[in-house]
Amino acid sequence: MPSIGLRNGLIGGALVIAYFGLLYAFCLPCFLHPVYQWGVLLLYALLLVWTAVLDGRAHDFDRIFRERVRAPFLTFLVANVLYWIFYYALHLADPNLLAAETAQQLEYLQAQLKQGTGDPAASAQLREQIAYLQKEGMSMPLGPVLLQVCMSAIGGFGLAAAAAALSPLFQPDDRG
Q1: Fewer Cβ atoms within 10 A, N terminus or C terminus of the chain?
Q2: 31-45: per-residue pLDDT in tens?
Q3: Residues 15, 47: contact at Cβ < 8 Å?
């Protein structure tokens, strides 16, 4: 039987992929919206607490913290790697997705420029970014995606640590 962390990571990866797959299929603006992108952290948090509780009940809540954080962190890593594979593959499969992201970024940068930066150098930099995006568009190279995977692991460890710290609150009461 696979470890609790691995099993829940696979389940979590499937849930995250289903969440983003549905957003992509039925509401592309939702898929691109930061609230929905960051909102998935609630799913991750619930999954990690659930993993920490199951692991604590199986192996004791009184272990040292380093041992208690392993299962939820593994859950995060597996789910997150599956998400990023999905995200990268989706961008390779659908060039219109990059075009939509380019349009969204251009709109954001132009709004910033119109609002005014108060700094001529910052305004010039915004104009350069706008010109580049209008000419080249956005791309999805593998290197920055791998960097995002690694950077998200840092935040994932923080979530896993919080889940491990909270998990004893869900310890069954043996006092009768």
Answers
A1: C
A2: 999 999 999 999 999
A3: yes
